[in-house]
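#structure-requests
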Amino acid sequence: MKKLIKILPIVMTVFMVFTTIAPVLASSDLLGQVSPNPGNTGSFMTVGNNILGIIQVVGTIIAVGVLMVIGIKYMMGSAEEKAEYKKTMLPYIIGAVILFAAVNIAKAVVGLASSVTAG
């Protein structure tokens, strides 16, 4: 259990770094010029990208805020309270992973669909 407590923050940090740099890596032009607006779907894709961006920013802000609150309560709590906060961390971590993964998977699907329809 102590190993898991030491390894989990490292894994979460690496995961968060990869999710934040994914749009930067995806923006590099490795395969040549691909038209980002196939047909008349430009406005739909723009709205979808804006919604995904808003969800990602708001979700990240909320996730960091909740993590800060739980962390401060954990540091200030007694032994019984610390045990209770450890129980609340698992659903929090699962929710944060789902949030970051869902937004990035949706962006990847949109990118894949646009590249398939473009050529």
